[in-house]
Amino acid sequence: MDDWIAIVAIFVGLPWLILHYITKWKTAPTLTNDDEALLEELFQLSRRLDDRMETVERLVAADNPEFTPRRLPARDELPETKLADFDRALSRRTAK
After folding, report:
1. Cβ neighbours of residue 39 under 8 Å, at least 6 residues apart?
2. Are the C-beta atoms of 67 and 60 separated by less than 8 Å?
3. In which domain of life is the source organism classified (predicted)?
4. CA distance 93 to 87
5. What is the spatial distance between Cα 69 and Cα 54, in angstroms, rounded to a whole number?
6. Spatial distance between the Cα atoms of 59 and 39, rounded to a whole number of angstroms
C-alpha cells in the first residue's frame, strides 16, 4: 500500500503541483498602464527632489566653505574604472 501512495505522489501529485504553479506564474499580473504612469510620476518627483537637494547643498556650501555633502554620488560622478573592472569581472564569470 505504501508503494502505491509513493507512485501516485510521484506520477500524479508532483506534475500537478508543478503545472499548477507554472499556471499561476504565467497568469500573474504584470505592470499596467496605471502602474507605469505612477512609476514615471515617482521618477520625476525624485528627480525634482534631487535637484532641490543639490540647490540646498550649493547654498550651504556658499555660506560655509567647510561643508561637504553627505549624499550618494550621482551616477555620472562614479569613477568609470570601477565600473569597467566590474563589467570585465562579470563577463569573465559568465564566460566560464
Report:
1. 31
2. yes
3. Bacteria
4. 10
5. 9
6. 30
Could you give the CA distance from residue 4 to residue 12 in angstroms, rounded to a whole number?
A: 11
Q: What is the pLDDT of residues 24-61, one digit of tens each?
A: 888 877 778 888 899 999 999 999 998 998 899 889 98
Q: Which amino acid is at 19?
A: L
Alpha helix stretches (DSSP H) within the chain: 2-8, 14-26, 33-63, 80-95
| Phi, psi for residue 21 in degrees, rounded to 5 | -75, -30
Phi, psi of 57 (to 5 degrees): -65, -40
Model pLDDT for residues 17-28, shown as the tens digit of each residue: 999 999 988 887
Confirm if 34 and 16 have CB atoms less than 8 A apart. no
What are the residue boundaries of the structural domains of the chain, listed by start? 40-96
Global pTM exceeds 0.90: no
**DSSP conformation class of 65:** T
